[in-house]
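Progress narrative, work stream C.
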Amino acid sequence: MPIPFAYWVHDLSPFLVRFSDNVGIRYYGLAYVLGALASVWLLFRYARAGRSQLPAALVWDFIMAVVLGVMLGGRIGSYLLYDGWRTFPEDPLAIFRVWEGGMASHGGFVGVACALGWFSWRHKIPYLHLGDLIVSTTPVGLGVLGRTANFINGELWGKVTDVPWAVIFPRSVPPGVPLSLIPPRHPSQLYEAALEGVLLLAFVQWRFWRSDIVRTKPGRMAGEFLVAYSVLRAVGEVFREPDEGIDLIFGLSRGTFYSLFLAAAGVWLVLRQPRGETGAKPQS
Protein backbone atom coordinates (compact mmCIF):
# COMPACT_ATOMS: atom_id res chain seq x y z
CA MET A 1 0.00 0.00 0.00
CA PRO A 2 1.51 3.38 -0.91
CA ILE A 3 1.85 5.66 2.12
CA PRO A 4 1.23 9.29 1.14
CA PHE A 5 2.41 11.85 3.68
CA ALA A 6 -1.04 13.42 3.52
CA TYR A 7 -1.96 11.13 6.40
CA TRP A 8 -1.71 12.78 9.78
CA VAL A 9 1.15 11.47 11.91
CA HIS A 10 0.19 11.04 15.56
CA ASP A 11 2.57 13.12 17.66
CA LEU A 12 0.46 14.04 20.69
CA SER A 13 1.98 14.01 24.16
CA PRO A 14 0.22 11.90 26.82
CA PHE A 15 0.90 14.72 29.31
CA LEU A 16 -1.14 17.86 29.81
CA VAL A 17 1.64 19.10 32.10
CA ARG A 18 5.00 17.32 32.31
CA PHE A 19 7.38 17.67 35.23
CA SER A 20 9.91 15.00 34.21
CA ASP A 21 10.18 12.05 31.84
CA ASN A 22 7.53 9.96 33.63
CA VAL A 23 5.95 12.43 36.04
CA GLY A 24 3.19 14.87 35.23
CA ILE A 25 -0.53 15.29 34.69
CA ARG A 26 -1.56 12.71 32.11
CA TYR A 27 -4.65 12.98 29.95
CA TYR A 28 -5.57 9.40 30.85
CA GLY A 29 -5.62 10.17 34.56
CA LEU A 30 -7.45 13.42 33.88
CA ALA A 31 -10.12 11.44 32.02
CA TYR A 32 -10.85 9.46 35.19
CA VAL A 33 -11.09 12.62 37.28
CA LEU A 34 -13.35 14.46 34.84
CA GLY A 35 -15.48 11.34 34.36
CA ALA A 36 -16.02 11.09 38.11
CA LEU A 37 -16.91 14.79 38.35
CA ALA A 38 -19.40 14.45 35.48
CA SER A 39 -21.02 11.52 37.31
CA VAL A 40 -21.23 13.57 40.50
CA TRP A 41 -22.93 16.42 38.64
CA LEU A 42 -25.49 14.10 37.05
CA LEU A 43 -26.23 12.30 40.34
CA PHE A 44 -26.87 15.62 42.07
CA ARG A 45 -29.24 16.52 39.24
CA TYR A 46 -31.11 13.25 39.70
CA ALA A 47 -31.45 13.85 43.44
CA ARG A 48 -32.72 17.41 42.97
CA ALA A 49 -35.23 16.20 40.36
CA GLY A 50 -36.57 13.56 42.77
CA ARG A 51 -35.68 10.71 40.43
CA SER A 52 -33.09 9.04 42.65
CA GLN A 53 -33.10 7.08 45.90
CA LEU A 54 -29.49 8.14 46.41
CA PRO A 55 -29.56 11.23 48.69
CA ALA A 56 -27.47 14.18 47.61
CA ALA A 57 -25.54 13.86 50.87
CA LEU A 58 -24.24 10.44 49.81
CA VAL A 59 -23.30 11.24 46.23
CA TRP A 60 -19.61 11.81 46.93
CA ASP A 61 -19.37 8.67 49.07
CA PHE A 62 -21.03 6.71 46.29
CA ILE A 63 -18.65 8.00 43.63
CA MET A 64 -15.62 7.28 45.78
CA ALA A 65 -16.79 3.67 46.19
CA VAL A 66 -17.37 3.36 42.43
CA VAL A 67 -13.99 4.89 41.58
CA LEU A 68 -12.27 2.44 43.92
CA GLY A 69 -14.16 -0.41 42.24
CA VAL A 70 -13.13 0.83 38.79
CA MET A 71 -9.47 1.17 39.73
CA LEU A 72 -9.15 -2.19 41.46
CA GLY A 73 -11.35 -4.09 39.03
CA GLY A 74 -9.82 -2.48 35.96
CA ARG A 75 -6.26 -3.14 37.08
CA ILE A 76 -6.83 -6.70 38.28
CA GLY A 77 -8.94 -7.39 35.19
CA SER A 78 -6.17 -6.19 32.89
CA TYR A 79 -3.71 -8.43 34.72
CA LEU A 80 -5.89 -11.53 34.60
CA LEU A 81 -7.92 -11.16 31.41
CA TYR A 82 -5.10 -9.97 29.14
CA ASP A 83 -2.39 -12.40 30.18
CA GLY A 84 -0.40 -10.08 32.44
CA TRP A 85 -0.41 -12.90 34.99
CA ARG A 86 1.98 -14.86 32.77
CA THR A 87 4.80 -12.53 33.86
CA PHE A 88 4.16 -13.12 37.55
CA PRO A 89 7.14 -15.48 38.13
CA GLU A 90 9.57 -12.95 36.64
CA ASP A 91 7.85 -9.74 37.79
CA PRO A 92 5.39 -10.36 40.66
CA LEU A 93 5.01 -6.64 41.46
CA ALA A 94 3.92 -5.60 37.95
CA ILE A 95 0.24 -5.49 38.94
CA PHE A 96 0.96 -2.65 41.38
CA ARG A 97 2.67 -0.38 38.86
CA VAL A 98 -0.49 1.42 37.78
CA TRP A 99 1.51 4.34 36.37
CA GLU A 100 2.67 2.08 33.56
CA GLY A 101 -0.91 1.71 32.29
CA GLY A 102 -3.06 -1.35 31.91
CA MET A 103 -6.77 -1.08 32.70
CA ALA A 104 -9.49 -3.42 31.43
CA SER A 105 -13.02 -2.08 31.08
CA HIS A 106 -14.53 -5.52 31.66
CA GLY A 107 -12.61 -5.85 34.91
CA GLY A 108 -13.84 -2.39 35.82
CA PHE A 109 -17.44 -3.56 35.39
CA VAL A 110 -16.85 -6.37 37.88
CA GLY A 111 -15.18 -3.97 40.30
CA VAL A 112 -18.11 -1.56 40.09
CA ALA A 113 -20.61 -4.39 40.62
CA CYS A 114 -18.79 -5.29 43.84
CA ALA A 115 -18.63 -1.65 44.95
CA LEU A 116 -22.39 -1.27 44.35
CA GLY A 117 -23.05 -4.38 46.44
CA TRP A 118 -21.08 -2.98 49.36
CA PHE A 119 -22.68 0.47 49.09
CA SER A 120 -26.18 -1.00 48.81
CA TRP A 121 -25.63 -3.09 51.94
CA ARG A 122 -24.03 -0.21 53.85
CA HIS A 123 -26.70 2.38 53.10
CA LYS A 124 -29.76 0.18 52.49
CA ILE A 125 -30.35 1.49 48.96
CA PRO A 126 -31.61 -1.06 46.40
CA TYR A 127 -28.72 -2.58 44.47
CA LEU A 128 -30.42 -2.52 41.07
CA HIS A 129 -31.41 1.11 41.51
CA LEU A 130 -27.78 2.02 42.14
CA GLY A 131 -26.87 0.06 39.02
CA ASP A 132 -29.34 2.05 36.95
CA LEU A 133 -27.94 5.31 38.30
CA ILE A 134 -24.30 4.53 37.59
CA VAL A 135 -24.81 3.21 34.05
CA SER A 136 -26.59 6.44 33.18
CA THR A 137 -23.32 8.31 33.86
CA THR A 138 -20.72 5.72 32.83
CA PRO A 139 -20.37 6.60 29.11
CA VAL A 140 -18.86 9.98 29.94
CA GLY A 141 -15.75 8.60 31.59
CA LEU A 142 -15.57 5.19 29.94
CA GLY A 143 -16.32 6.23 26.38
CA VAL A 144 -16.07 9.94 25.66
CA LEU A 145 -13.11 10.78 27.89
CA GLY A 146 -11.42 7.39 28.28
CA ARG A 147 -11.29 6.53 24.58
CA THR A 148 -10.24 10.06 23.67
CA ALA A 149 -7.38 9.68 26.15
CA ASN A 150 -6.46 6.39 24.45
CA PHE A 151 -6.19 8.29 21.18
CA ILE A 152 -4.06 11.03 22.72
CA ASN A 153 -1.78 8.34 24.17
CA GLY A 154 -1.43 6.78 20.71
CA GLU A 155 -2.47 3.35 22.02
CA LEU A 156 -5.11 0.77 21.10
CA TRP A 157 -4.87 1.83 17.48
CA GLY A 158 -6.96 0.41 14.65
CA LYS A 159 -6.28 -1.91 11.75
CA VAL A 160 -4.35 -0.88 8.66
CA THR A 161 -6.51 1.04 6.18
CA ASP A 162 -6.34 3.61 3.40
CA VAL A 163 -9.41 5.67 4.32
CA PRO A 164 -8.76 9.42 3.99
CA TRP A 165 -8.99 10.01 7.75
CA ALA A 166 -6.49 7.27 8.65
CA VAL A 167 -3.72 8.11 11.11
CA ILE A 168 -0.09 7.02 11.23
CA PHE A 169 0.73 5.81 14.75
CA PRO A 170 4.54 5.66 15.14
CA ARG A 171 4.16 3.44 18.22
CA SER A 172 2.44 0.77 16.09
CA VAL A 173 5.81 -0.38 14.74
CA PRO A 174 9.20 -1.10 16.34
CA PRO A 175 11.44 1.94 16.96
CA GLY A 176 13.57 2.95 14.00
CA VAL A 177 11.13 2.11 11.23
CA PRO A 178 11.10 4.96 8.67
CA LEU A 179 7.95 7.04 8.70
CA SER A 180 7.33 6.28 5.02
CA LEU A 181 7.04 2.57 5.89
CA ILE A 182 4.53 2.94 8.73
CA PRO A 183 1.05 1.99 7.47
CA PRO A 184 -1.89 4.28 8.29
CA ARG A 185 -4.54 2.88 10.57
CA HIS A 186 -8.11 3.46 11.63
CA PRO A 187 -8.34 5.89 14.56
CA SER A 188 -10.48 3.25 16.25
CA GLN A 189 -10.18 4.99 19.62
CA LEU A 190 -12.26 7.85 18.23
CA TYR A 191 -14.80 5.43 16.73
CA GLU A 192 -15.19 3.91 20.20
CA ALA A 193 -15.42 7.35 21.81
CA ALA A 194 -18.34 8.10 19.48
CA LEU A 195 -20.04 4.71 19.92
CA GLU A 196 -19.36 3.75 23.55
CA GLY A 197 -19.32 7.39 24.59
CA VAL A 198 -21.49 9.90 22.76
CA LEU A 199 -24.09 7.50 21.31
CA LEU A 200 -24.42 5.40 24.46
CA LEU A 201 -24.61 8.47 26.70
CA ALA A 202 -27.39 9.93 24.57
CA PHE A 203 -29.29 6.63 24.81
CA VAL A 204 -29.08 6.17 28.58
CA GLN A 205 -29.86 9.82 29.30
CA TRP A 206 -32.88 9.64 27.00
CA ARG A 207 -34.09 6.51 28.78
CA PHE A 208 -33.49 8.01 32.22
CA TRP A 209 -35.32 11.29 31.65
CA ARG A 210 -37.95 10.24 29.10
CA SER A 211 -39.20 7.06 30.77
CA ASP A 212 -40.07 5.82 34.23
CA ILE A 213 -38.15 2.54 34.11
CA VAL A 214 -35.70 3.50 36.85
CA ARG A 215 -38.63 3.63 39.28
CA THR A 216 -40.91 0.95 37.86
CA LYS A 217 -38.42 -1.59 36.50
CA PRO A 218 -35.21 -1.47 38.56
CA GLY A 219 -32.30 -3.04 36.75
CA ARG A 220 -33.90 -2.70 33.33
CA MET A 221 -31.79 0.29 32.28
CA ALA A 222 -28.62 -1.34 33.57
CA GLY A 223 -29.48 -4.35 31.41
CA GLU A 224 -30.13 -2.21 28.36
CA PHE A 225 -26.82 -0.46 28.92
CA LEU A 226 -24.88 -3.74 29.15
CA VAL A 227 -26.45 -5.06 25.94
CA ALA A 228 -25.92 -1.79 24.08
CA TYR A 229 -22.33 -1.47 25.32
CA SER A 230 -21.55 -5.03 24.26
CA VAL A 231 -22.91 -4.49 20.75
CA LEU A 232 -21.14 -1.16 20.30
CA ARG A 233 -17.90 -2.56 21.71
CA ALA A 234 -18.08 -5.43 19.22
CA VAL A 235 -18.58 -2.94 16.38
CA GLY A 236 -15.56 -0.96 17.51
CA GLU A 237 -13.47 -4.13 17.75
CA VAL A 238 -14.02 -4.72 14.02
CA PHE A 239 -11.76 -1.73 13.31
CA ARG A 240 -9.33 -2.21 16.21
CA GLU A 241 -6.03 -4.06 15.90
CA PRO A 242 -5.96 -7.04 18.29
CA ASP A 243 -3.53 -6.56 21.17
CA GLU A 244 -0.08 -7.82 20.29
CA GLY A 245 0.75 -11.12 21.91
CA ILE A 246 -2.86 -11.68 23.04
CA ASP A 247 -4.46 -14.73 21.45
CA LEU A 248 -7.96 -14.64 20.02
CA ILE A 249 -10.67 -16.72 21.73
CA PHE A 250 -12.81 -18.73 19.30
CA GLY A 251 -11.70 -16.32 16.61
CA LEU A 252 -12.90 -13.30 18.62
CA SER A 253 -10.83 -10.51 20.14
CA ARG A 254 -10.70 -10.48 23.93
CA GLY A 255 -12.84 -7.33 24.00
CA THR A 256 -15.60 -8.96 21.95
CA PHE A 257 -15.42 -12.30 23.76
CA TYR A 258 -15.67 -10.80 27.24
CA SER A 259 -18.51 -8.56 26.07
CA LEU A 260 -20.60 -11.68 25.45
CA PHE A 261 -20.81 -12.19 29.21
CA LEU A 262 -21.86 -8.58 29.74
CA ALA A 263 -24.52 -8.98 27.07
CA ALA A 264 -25.82 -12.16 28.73
CA ALA A 265 -26.07 -10.37 32.08
CA GLY A 266 -27.82 -7.47 30.35
CA VAL A 267 -30.38 -9.73 28.68
CA TRP A 268 -31.11 -11.37 32.04
CA LEU A 269 -31.68 -7.97 33.67
CA VAL A 270 -33.98 -6.86 30.86
CA LEU A 271 -36.07 -10.05 30.91
CA ARG A 272 -36.23 -10.62 34.67
CA GLN A 273 -39.49 -9.97 36.49
CA PRO A 274 -39.29 -7.33 39.26
CA ARG A 275 -40.30 -8.57 42.70
CA GLY A 276 -41.86 -5.68 44.50
CA GLU A 277 -38.79 -3.44 44.20
CA THR A 278 -40.59 -0.34 43.00
CA GLY A 279 -42.16 0.86 46.20
CA ALA A 280 -39.23 2.85 47.57
CA LYS A 281 -39.71 6.57 47.49
CA PRO A 282 -36.99 8.73 45.91
CA GLN A 283 -35.01 10.81 48.40
CA SER A 284 -33.65 14.30 48.09
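Work stream C, second folded protein:
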Amino acid sequence: MKRVLDLAALRSFVAVADSGGVTRAANLLNLTQSAVSMQMKRLEEQLGVTLLDRSGRGVALTGAGEQLLGYGRRLLALNDEAIGRLTDAEYEGELCLGVPHDIVYPHIPRVLSRFNAEFPRMRVRLESSFTLRLKERFARGECDLTLATEDRVGPLGETLATGQMIWIGAPGGVAWRERPVRLAFEAACGFRAPAQAALDAAGLPWTMAIESESSRAIEASLSADLAISASLCGAKPSYLEEIAHGGRLPQLPVYKINLYVSKADHSPPRERCADLLREAYGGFGAVRAA
Protein backbone atom coordinates (compact mmCIF):
# COMPACT_ATOMS: atom_id res chain seq x y z
CA MET A 1 0.00 0.00 0.00
CA LYS A 2 1.37 3.39 -0.97
CA ARG A 3 2.19 5.80 1.83
CA VAL A 4 0.58 9.23 2.06
CA LEU A 5 2.46 12.26 3.27
CA ASP A 6 1.14 14.03 6.36
CA LEU A 7 0.33 17.49 5.00
CA ALA A 8 0.31 19.08 8.47
CA ALA A 9 3.82 17.77 9.09
CA LEU A 10 4.84 18.81 5.61
CA ARG A 11 3.58 22.35 6.29
CA SER A 12 5.69 22.47 9.44
CA PHE A 13 8.74 21.28 7.50
CA VAL A 14 8.32 23.99 4.85
CA ALA A 15 7.84 26.60 7.59
CA VAL A 16 11.05 25.46 9.33
CA ALA A 17 12.96 25.60 6.05
CA ASP A 18 11.61 29.06 5.15
CA SER A 19 12.01 30.62 8.61
CA GLY A 20 15.34 28.98 9.49
CA GLY A 21 14.33 27.41 12.78
CA VAL A 22 11.75 25.42 14.73
CA THR A 23 10.93 28.28 17.11
CA ARG A 24 10.21 30.76 14.30
CA ALA A 25 8.16 28.13 12.43
CA ALA A 26 6.10 27.45 15.57
CA ASN A 27 5.31 31.16 15.86
CA LEU A 28 4.29 31.36 12.18
CA LEU A 29 2.05 28.31 12.47
CA ASN A 30 0.65 29.24 15.90
CA LEU A 31 1.89 25.93 17.30
CA THR A 32 4.13 25.02 20.21
CA GLN A 33 7.79 24.32 19.53
CA SER A 34 7.38 20.75 20.78
CA ALA A 35 4.44 20.18 18.35
CA VAL A 36 6.54 21.28 15.39
CA SER A 37 9.46 19.13 16.54
CA MET A 38 7.18 16.09 16.86
CA GLN A 39 5.78 16.65 13.37
CA MET A 40 9.28 16.89 11.94
CA LYS A 41 10.30 13.66 13.66
CA ARG A 42 7.14 11.90 12.41
CA LEU A 43 7.81 13.06 8.83
CA GLU A 44 11.40 11.78 8.94
CA GLU A 45 10.27 8.43 10.32
CA GLN A 46 7.60 8.13 7.63
CA LEU A 47 10.13 8.77 4.85
CA GLY A 48 13.03 6.96 6.49
CA VAL A 49 15.41 9.88 5.84
CA THR A 50 16.92 12.76 7.79
CA LEU A 51 15.54 16.07 6.62
CA LEU A 52 17.28 18.50 8.98
CA ASP A 53 20.95 18.82 9.90
CA ARG A 54 20.85 19.57 13.62
CA SER A 55 24.59 19.43 14.22
CA GLY A 56 25.16 23.18 14.08
CA ARG A 57 23.73 26.08 16.04
CA GLY A 58 20.97 26.61 13.49
CA VAL A 59 18.86 24.30 11.40
CA ALA A 60 20.00 23.36 7.90
CA LEU A 61 18.45 21.09 5.30
CA THR A 62 20.06 17.83 4.34
CA GLY A 63 20.20 16.75 0.72
CA ALA A 64 16.95 14.82 1.22
CA GLY A 65 15.42 17.88 2.87
CA GLU A 66 16.31 20.10 -0.05
CA GLN A 67 14.74 17.60 -2.43
CA LEU A 68 11.54 17.36 -0.36
CA LEU A 69 11.20 21.15 -0.06
CA GLY A 70 10.27 21.64 -3.72
CA TYR A 71 7.73 18.83 -3.63
CA GLY A 72 6.36 20.12 -0.32
CA ARG A 73 5.71 23.60 -1.63
CA ARG A 74 3.90 22.29 -4.72
CA LEU A 75 1.79 19.84 -2.70
CA LEU A 76 0.76 22.50 -0.19
CA ALA A 77 -0.04 25.01 -2.94
CA LEU A 78 -2.23 22.46 -4.72
CA ASN A 79 -3.92 21.52 -1.45
CA ASP A 80 -4.64 25.15 -0.60
CA GLU A 81 -5.97 25.82 -4.10
CA ALA A 82 -8.34 22.86 -3.92
CA ILE A 83 -9.60 23.80 -0.45
CA GLY A 84 -10.08 27.41 -1.51
CA ARG A 85 -11.96 26.50 -4.68
CA LEU A 86 -14.32 24.10 -2.91
CA THR A 87 -14.98 25.98 0.33
CA ASP A 88 -14.65 29.68 -0.49
CA ALA A 89 -18.14 31.16 -0.47
CA GLU A 90 -17.11 34.17 -2.53
CA TYR A 91 -19.03 34.50 -5.80
CA GLU A 92 -21.34 31.59 -5.15
CA GLY A 93 -25.03 31.56 -6.01
CA GLU A 94 -27.12 32.17 -9.08
CA LEU A 95 -27.27 34.91 -11.68
CA CYS A 96 -30.35 35.24 -13.90
CA LEU A 97 -29.85 36.70 -17.38
CA GLY A 98 -32.77 37.56 -19.65
CA VAL A 99 -32.28 37.69 -23.43
CA PRO A 100 -34.90 38.05 -26.19
CA HIS A 101 -34.86 34.81 -28.14
CA ASP A 102 -34.13 36.51 -31.46
CA ILE A 103 -30.77 37.93 -30.30
CA VAL A 104 -29.45 34.93 -28.34
CA TYR A 105 -27.19 33.89 -31.22
CA PRO A 106 -24.37 34.29 -31.91
CA HIS A 107 -23.21 36.25 -28.86
CA ILE A 108 -24.79 34.73 -25.73
CA PRO A 109 -23.01 31.33 -25.88
CA ARG A 110 -19.63 33.11 -25.93
CA VAL A 111 -20.68 35.45 -23.10
CA LEU A 112 -21.78 32.50 -20.94
CA SER A 113 -18.58 30.58 -21.68
CA ARG A 114 -16.36 33.50 -20.68
CA PHE A 115 -18.40 34.23 -17.56
CA ASN A 116 -18.24 30.60 -16.45
CA ALA A 117 -14.47 30.57 -16.84
CA GLU A 118 -14.16 33.60 -14.55
CA PHE A 119 -16.85 32.61 -12.02
CA PRO A 120 -17.00 28.80 -12.08
CA ARG A 121 -19.04 28.57 -8.88
CA MET A 122 -21.80 30.87 -10.11
CA ARG A 123 -24.85 29.21 -11.68
CA VAL A 124 -26.23 31.18 -14.62
CA ARG A 125 -29.92 30.83 -15.44
CA LEU A 126 -30.73 32.02 -18.95
CA GLU A 127 -34.29 33.26 -19.51
CA SER A 128 -35.19 33.63 -23.18
CA SER A 129 -38.52 35.26 -24.00
CA PHE A 130 -39.99 38.45 -25.42
CA THR A 131 -38.82 41.89 -24.33
CA LEU A 132 -42.12 42.75 -22.62
CA ARG A 133 -42.07 39.60 -20.50
CA LEU A 134 -38.38 39.92 -19.69
CA LYS A 135 -38.78 43.50 -18.53
CA GLU A 136 -41.74 42.50 -16.36
CA ARG A 137 -39.59 39.83 -14.73
CA PHE A 138 -36.75 42.32 -14.32
CA ALA A 139 -39.12 44.80 -12.62
CA ARG A 140 -40.18 42.07 -10.17
CA GLY A 141 -36.54 41.38 -9.32
CA GLU A 142 -36.56 37.96 -10.98
CA CYS A 143 -33.74 38.80 -13.42
CA ASP A 144 -30.40 40.31 -12.46
CA LEU A 145 -29.76 41.58 -15.99
CA THR A 146 -31.80 41.58 -19.14
CA LEU A 147 -31.38 42.64 -22.72
CA ALA A 148 -34.32 44.19 -24.55
CA THR A 149 -35.11 45.11 -28.15
CA GLU A 150 -37.03 48.40 -28.05
CA ASP A 151 -37.66 51.60 -29.97
CA ARG A 152 -36.50 53.63 -26.96
CA VAL A 153 -34.55 53.04 -23.75
CA GLY A 154 -36.33 53.04 -20.42
CA PRO A 155 -35.24 53.97 -16.88
CA LEU A 156 -32.17 52.07 -15.62
CA GLY A 157 -31.36 51.05 -19.20
CA GLU A 158 -28.47 51.76 -21.53
CA THR A 159 -28.36 51.31 -25.28
CA LEU A 160 -25.69 48.89 -26.49
CA ALA A 161 -26.49 49.04 -30.20
CA THR A 162 -29.02 50.21 -32.75
CA GLY A 163 -30.18 48.19 -35.71
CA GLN A 164 -32.58 48.46 -38.62
CA MET A 165 -35.63 46.24 -38.56
CA ILE A 166 -35.89 44.22 -41.77
CA TRP A 167 -38.46 42.02 -43.49
CA ILE A 168 -37.50 38.33 -43.50
CA GLY A 169 -38.84 35.23 -45.17
CA ALA A 170 -37.94 31.99 -46.90
CA PRO A 171 -34.85 32.00 -49.14
CA GLY A 172 -36.12 32.79 -52.63
CA GLY A 173 -39.65 33.04 -51.25
CA VAL A 174 -42.54 34.85 -52.90
CA ALA A 175 -44.96 35.17 -49.98
CA TRP A 176 -44.03 38.83 -49.61
CA ARG A 177 -45.59 39.57 -53.01
CA GLU A 178 -49.07 38.49 -51.91
CA ARG A 179 -51.78 41.01 -51.06
CA PRO A 180 -52.91 41.26 -48.41
CA VAL A 181 -49.43 40.77 -46.97
CA ARG A 182 -49.34 37.52 -44.99
CA LEU A 183 -47.66 38.06 -41.61
CA ALA A 184 -46.35 35.56 -39.07
CA PHE A 185 -45.63 36.71 -35.50
CA GLU A 186 -45.80 35.47 -31.95
CA ALA A 187 -48.53 37.21 -30.00
CA ALA A 188 -46.10 38.98 -27.66
CA CYS A 189 -43.41 39.83 -30.23
CA GLY A 190 -42.36 43.46 -29.95
CA PHE A 191 -41.80 43.72 -33.72
CA ARG A 192 -45.40 42.83 -34.52
CA ALA A 193 -47.03 46.24 -33.92
CA PRO A 194 -44.30 48.28 -35.74
CA ALA A 195 -44.53 45.99 -38.77
CA GLN A 196 -48.32 46.33 -38.89
CA ALA A 197 -48.08 50.11 -38.42
CA ALA A 198 -45.58 50.39 -41.27
CA LEU A 199 -47.90 48.49 -43.59
CA ASP A 200 -50.87 50.64 -42.54
CA ALA A 201 -48.88 53.83 -43.14
CA ALA A 202 -47.95 52.57 -46.62
CA GLY A 203 -51.57 51.72 -47.40
CA LEU A 204 -50.83 48.00 -47.81
CA PRO A 205 -53.45 45.52 -46.62
CA TRP A 206 -52.23 42.71 -44.36
CA THR A 207 -53.50 39.67 -42.55
CA MET A 208 -52.12 37.79 -39.56
CA ALA A 209 -51.74 34.49 -41.38
CA ILE A 210 -49.68 32.68 -38.77
CA GLU A 211 -49.86 33.33 -35.04
CA SER A 212 -48.26 31.12 -32.41
CA GLU A 213 -46.70 31.19 -28.94
CA SER A 214 -43.78 29.20 -30.32
CA SER A 215 -40.92 30.94 -32.13
CA ARG A 216 -40.04 27.58 -33.70
CA ALA A 217 -43.52 27.34 -35.22
CA ILE A 218 -43.23 30.85 -36.63
CA GLU A 219 -39.81 30.14 -38.12
CA ALA A 220 -41.05 26.88 -39.65
CA SER A 221 -43.93 28.76 -41.28
CA LEU A 222 -41.55 31.38 -42.65
CA SER A 223 -39.22 28.68 -43.99
CA ALA A 224 -42.20 27.14 -45.79
CA ASP A 225 -42.87 30.52 -47.47
CA LEU A 226 -46.31 30.75 -45.88
CA ALA A 227 -45.79 34.30 -44.62
CA ILE A 228 -43.20 36.96 -43.79
CA SER A 229 -42.06 38.53 -40.56
CA ALA A 230 -39.60 41.11 -39.21
CA SER A 231 -36.28 40.91 -37.40
CA LEU A 232 -33.35 43.07 -36.45
CA CYS A 233 -30.66 43.29 -39.10
CA GLY A 234 -27.97 40.80 -38.12
CA ALA A 235 -30.28 38.73 -35.92
CA LYS A 236 -32.29 36.68 -38.44
CA PRO A 237 -31.96 32.88 -38.33
CA SER A 238 -29.46 31.51 -40.84
CA TYR A 239 -32.16 29.54 -42.67
CA LEU A 240 -34.17 32.68 -43.44
CA GLU A 241 -33.17 35.68 -45.52
CA GLU A 242 -33.77 39.39 -45.72
CA ILE A 243 -36.42 40.08 -48.35
CA ALA A 244 -35.10 42.05 -51.33
CA HIS A 245 -38.44 43.75 -51.98
CA GLY A 246 -37.09 46.73 -53.94
CA GLY A 247 -39.35 49.19 -52.14
CA ARG A 248 -42.55 47.17 -52.53
CA LEU A 249 -42.66 46.78 -48.76
CA PRO A 250 -42.31 49.76 -46.40
CA GLN A 251 -39.11 50.50 -44.53
CA LEU A 252 -39.27 49.43 -40.91
CA PRO A 253 -38.07 51.53 -37.96
CA VAL A 254 -34.72 51.47 -36.21
CA TYR A 255 -34.68 49.54 -32.95
CA LYS A 256 -32.30 49.52 -29.99
CA ILE A 257 -30.68 46.70 -28.07
CA ASN A 258 -30.83 47.90 -24.47
CA LEU A 259 -29.27 46.51 -21.31
CA TYR A 260 -30.95 46.69 -17.91
CA VAL A 261 -28.90 45.85 -14.82
CA SER A 262 -30.39 45.51 -11.35
CA LYS A 263 -29.19 48.16 -8.92
CA ALA A 264 -29.93 45.97 -5.90
CA ASP A 265 -26.21 45.36 -5.54
CA HIS A 266 -23.05 45.91 -7.50
CA SER A 267 -21.47 42.48 -7.11
CA PRO A 268 -18.41 41.75 -9.26
CA PRO A 269 -20.13 38.82 -11.07
CA ARG A 270 -23.10 40.97 -12.07
CA GLU A 271 -20.90 43.84 -13.19
CA ARG A 272 -18.63 41.51 -15.12
CA CYS A 273 -21.58 39.90 -16.91
CA ALA A 274 -22.80 43.37 -17.87
CA ASP A 275 -19.35 44.24 -19.23
CA LEU A 276 -19.27 41.04 -21.30
CA LEU A 277 -22.68 41.90 -22.77
CA ARG A 278 -21.55 45.43 -23.58
CA GLU A 279 -18.50 44.03 -25.33
CA ALA A 280 -20.48 41.40 -27.25
CA TYR A 281 -23.35 43.58 -28.45
CA GLY A 282 -21.49 46.86 -28.78
CA GLY A 283 -21.03 46.34 -32.50
CA PHE A 284 -24.15 44.28 -33.11
CA GLY A 285 -25.63 46.26 -35.96
CA ALA A 286 -25.42 49.54 -37.81
CA VAL A 287 -28.37 51.70 -38.72
CA ARG A 288 -29.10 51.31 -42.43
CA ALA A 289 -32.00 51.32 -44.83
CA ALA A 290 -33.85 48.07 -45.31
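Residues 86 and 225 are 53 Å apart (CA to CA). No further action is required on this item.
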